[in-house]
Write the structure tokens for this entry.
Amino acid sequence: MLNMKSVLHKSETRGHANHGWLDSHHTFSFAGYHDPERMYFGVLRVLNDDIVQGGMGFGTHPHDNMEIISIPLKGELEHKDSMGNTHVIYENDIQAMSAGTGIYHSEYNRNKEVLTNFLQIWIFPNKTNVEPRYDQKSYDPQTLKNNFQQILSPNPEDAGVWIHQDVWFHRGTFEPGKSTTYSLKKPGNGIYFFILEGSVEIEGQPLNKRDGYGVWEVENINIKASTNSDILVMEVPMELN
């Protein structure tokens, strides 16, 4: 192993904003939460853990020159945008938008009785002012069992959605005691682990639910599940374009 560097973001240290209709935890600086030590991890700019009350949501608002990813963990999210897309995103779906030259969109919990919990992730693109685009894919949860299933990449022909950046997302669910190794897709990238459920050890570092752990200057990294666990792996360039 190279001289691995790391940064640990414990769940309880995240920024928090409760707006009533929206309860949001921010791993990195966002809106009213600002920490100069937690602006981004490489090109990973935003990692928000959002809970939206039934029937509520984000009204129409603009974005440009950002890759925006949504991953529902519980419930359903209805998406509408200025490109004419109207879609519902479910558990075991992943949605990606290239905002490019500019888009408007809204996201709502269309179920009035059940909370929706989803991850809102922003990635700095490697190309600016591209034509806006929308992408959404489903994946079989069985393919995640004791395995890291690719759900996002820079390659349109690969499994999962794609974005304008040399980024790969994988998700896996692991039984207690199961071990695996993640190998870097592109030299020089870093890896940010976000523990969705359970407890794991990554190169001996214990992590629990909603902890984040970024590592870089590494080629392979060892992960062991301590309990039934659900892990999101985000491999990203460490240098901003």
About this structure: The mean pLDDT is 96. Residues 7 and 214 are 5 Å apart (CA to CA). The first strand starts at residue 5 and ends at 9. Residues 5-126+140-237 form a domain with the Jelly Rolls fold (CATH 2.60.120.10).
